[in-house]
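Hi everyone,

Forwarding the result from last night's run.
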Amino acid sequence: MSKMKGLIKTFRSISQPQVIPLLRPNKGLYYRCLASETTTSGQTNVEKPIENASTEGKQTGNPDQTTPLGRSIRGGPVSWLSLVLLIMTGGGLIFFYDREKKRHIEGLKAATSSVKQGPSVGTPAIGGPFKLVNDNGKFVTEKDFLGKWTLLYFGFTHCPDICPDELQKMAAAIEKIKKKSGLVIVPVFISVDPERDSVEQVHDYVKEFHPDLIGLTGTPSEVRQVARAYRVYYMKTEEEGSDYLVDHSIVMYLMDPNMEFVKFYGKNYDVDSLADGIIKEIKQYKK
């Protein structure tokens, strides 16, 4: 009888589930229930873990869900395939942008080259009426030069080097123009030093360069007016009593037969380029 009671007690202890408390790090206490069942074949089933209702990770939508064994199921890093696709996509965008940029630049170049030059807006406001005295003592105005091509130069007779060089270049250029094309150009010298450049002084000075060179002078106000009309700069420098120099613009002005401004020529022009430039302007003017 006592043996029978012992067997019954042993059977009950085997068939009843055992609750084993377990402590998970940082997750609190949970229970694992080990249910051992005896099958008809006499084998015992593998233990089945059953977590309590408060076990974490049961909630849906939690990115940190865990498996029953406590392993994280967070998504892994970017795969090599995703990285390759990303690089290919970026390269394609860069290639497309570069191609469109080149196409836009080529379009701008084509549009610019196809634009034709329109009519001239106008000529600079250079020139105007004046009244001066020529080297023969006669009053002249701009009207005395109508019907002729005129080349004007502003300087002064006491100029040490620049004015003589420019007047020699002017004289050689008009001779070359006459020989090359038969055109007659009237050379004119206008003094910007009226205090010292008298009629006699100007006459002796201009005849040293060319017999046709016309010298003009006048009062300080008359010289100031013509210089302003032709946008000529001049100013006394290094003044020591009656001896001084005059700083001034080094420009020749080509005027058409109506005494209207055509073009100016600076110090950088030599005899040949000056002569050829004037011939070119006159031919274009006659067309």
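DSSP finds six helices and eleven strands in the chain.

Cheers,
N.
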